[in-house]
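Model the whole thing, not chain by chain.
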Amino acid sequence: MENQIIEPSGLRPMGTRKNSKVVDQTVVEIVSDSGEGAQKCGQSLGSISAKMGNGVWTVEIIPAEIQPPARSREGASGIRVRIGSKKVTNMGNHANLVVALNEQVLYGRLAQDAYKEGTVLLIENKWANHELEHIRNQYAEAITEFKAQGLDVREIPMETECLKLVRDAQKGKNMWVLGMLCGIYGRDMERAEEQVRGIFRKKSEKIISSNLELLSAGYDWALNNLEFNYEIPAMKLDVDQVVMNGNEAMSFGTMAAGIELCSMYPITPATSVSHHLAENFEKVGGIVHQAEDEIAAIGFAIGASYAGKTALTVTSGPGLALKTEFIGLAVMAEIPLVIINVQRGGPSTGLPTKVEQSDMLAAIYGETGDAPKIVFAAATIEECFHFVILARKLAETFRTPVMLLSDTNLATGVQPFPRPKINSEWFASPIDQSAWKEGVGAFQWSAETGISKRPIPGQKGGMYTLTGLAHDEKSRVAYDPDINQRSAEHRSRKMAAFQQTLKRPAINGDAEGDLLLVGWGSTLGAIEEAVAKAQEEGLKVSSIHLRFLLPLEPGLKDIFSRFKKVVTVELNYSDKVGDPMITSENRRYSQLAWYLRAHTLTDVDCFSNVFGQPMSPAKVLQFIQNEVKK
Amino acid sequence: MFGLKPDLCSVPMPETHYGVDDYAKSTARWCPGCGGHSILSSVQKICKEKQYVPEKTVFVSGIGCSSRFPHYMGTYGFHGLHGRAFPVASGIKFRRPDLNVFVITGDGDCCSIGAGHWVHAVRYNMKMVVLLFDNSIYGLTKKQTSPTSAIGTVSNTHPKGSVLPPINPIQTTLGISNASFVAQTTDWNPAHMYATIRKAADHPGFAFVRIVQRCPIFMKDLYADKAADPDSVILLSHENGINLDPAIAKTFKRVIEHDPSDIHKAREYAELRDGIPVGLFYQNTENPCYDDYGAHNLGMTVAEKTQALEELLDKYMN
């Protein structure tokens, strides 16, 4: 549908910028009802900034419903964009500026402590004169309240300004807002135009010029009506960069690994990996199978892996729970398989669109029986790409399922990273169809490493019946009591063999001190930013960030021994001593802390929560300050 | 180069000739008198007749007495999880059109714990032969009610008799969209069973065969009278049906002429209560097969993939 332009005239000259204040980073939020295009607006701002050479991190603000009622507090939909002069690794702390298309959607964000005193609020003012009295009242009350909370409220005639250019302001207001933000933050308008043309590339030229009009009008409005504007100096980009979110990076990683099958069942927040694959997989010889359920999804992937190339299944918490029996089979029968688990809040259906790191122990120990498999976690969006390639290699080398953990924060966060140069060695080899060596069993475990070579259907002489029953070297069902013990030893030995190849984790900071923070997964950026600030303040704090969880990276006990205190920083639940009924004896630790305590016999403590929000550097810094002072 | 292109499915048969022994492995450990033994013999005979290359043939099963079947075959086998043979078999076939795939399942495996997969496997209509060993009882766990147990069946979970009517696996399969081959036979008529499985093996899609099977240990009397009484079995006969030796066909006292292209009649006959209908209920060789979709872009080279991926990455460039 065309949103008719009142007077088309193309991109107009822009107002001049003066008295810009230079800042090294800023956090902007755009919140609205669902469907108003706030995310598109913020993604565009992020993309334009990344292209200019700024560091960028975006976090989507997603309501649980597809179309929640308009103007509802729970229905806030939007995006946070953090833009910096250097690489940005996390969502930052409080927003510096927020654009709101109505006042109701701000309440939820305020409750989540997204803003602080002085945060500039640019709010659509059309509600002040709304035909319905209760809406006018709601708006007035909210403005009073926001001011009382210390927000720097600016009521903006967004609708009125848009109506000067288009007949329906609902369509295109996000582009006006984008223009306004480009004006405030001195964004390159040629890149902005390029961005807008990209968004509407499938639309008519009329629609494109209409949106460009809105973009430049917003820009001019900001310069003519706001007394502030900023510059965020950019880096000189010496390497090519790509910009994408973690799920897209995982899709790219899958394709670059030469994986040719993704078997999945829709589940938030993992599904968009398969969306990206569904759109692009065909071009690299791959295919997405949408199975009838989570169990079938992994069963299908296991069948494909057994008979050919290592396949992928992608899921999130509840789906992982359903897959456990098949994961156990893949461990028992040593079937290479890549399992991506994009973690969300749990248990049960939990917080489908929010971040948590609560599946670590389920990933490591979720199966019945002893079921060792490789478990590792990506900490950055770039790692989301490279770790899928690594996962496929590990799965084949060690003939095992490999679980790669991500989370909502990485899945939906957008960040630039150096463009990967596709390496032919990343791709899976064609499957071996040569004759199987006579006399070699289907599980001829190496006594040294536990590793054995798998026969693939089609290999003459390799015929065996894979079974989930305890079995011997020739895959014969175990009737001898020694076999189960022996086969378990060999499966476990593979983990040890792999562990021997791992390096000690790098220490961010001095190798000794008062406090060592230990993180894993998407909290990397927030932890390192907080640690850097604390170090500037002279605090003796360092951090390490684990990627491999099973097996664990070596040297941890030794590293821990050089710090007075070791604390994990995690987005999963832990009890706090002092809360009702909680004692130091019955206290339940967060997952990595529990695991590290068991592994290193070190008194590892934890700083964790399950608010469903990414970890912020400010919270970690505050924790460090309190902890070191103790 | 490894025979994975779809067009290589038609690779000429090698000169090696496979005998029945090439399809056999260890001695079957089913109870004496179990119907499994005669099904195994029929299947091995059909493999030989079709000259399936043993390394290109995979028997996939779930869990249960019947699901031990792959251990007794000289081919590749996948003895997986209870109820989950269908997804595994579908995954095997999806990217390996060159493999001959069989699914061996039981009444608990298929019609109870794996019922969800059964429905969808029928709809996928991938080329595979599915043999449902239906003895109306859980044998491996020692006599519990099965979803196909007749109402009133006394078992360890229903000592006073089961209380619900059984699922009719034929009717259920016929009710699923994209069903393409639905047949029934009995283990006590090996000639008919052989001819039925043989017809299934020739079918270009998902060939579902329910084998009414006796369990001599836990359901000794269930089919004892029927196996002895020729009147208890009704033969569905047609020129497009099961190709039965005329001498064998003559042994059936009750015969219904049934055109297997008629799904409505098929559903009507699936409900026959006064005897066990055997033969081909329904066949349609025109239905879409999901394996055609799965195999359509096999065999892309690393160079092709690299180029496509680089082009794709260009779109994400700053």
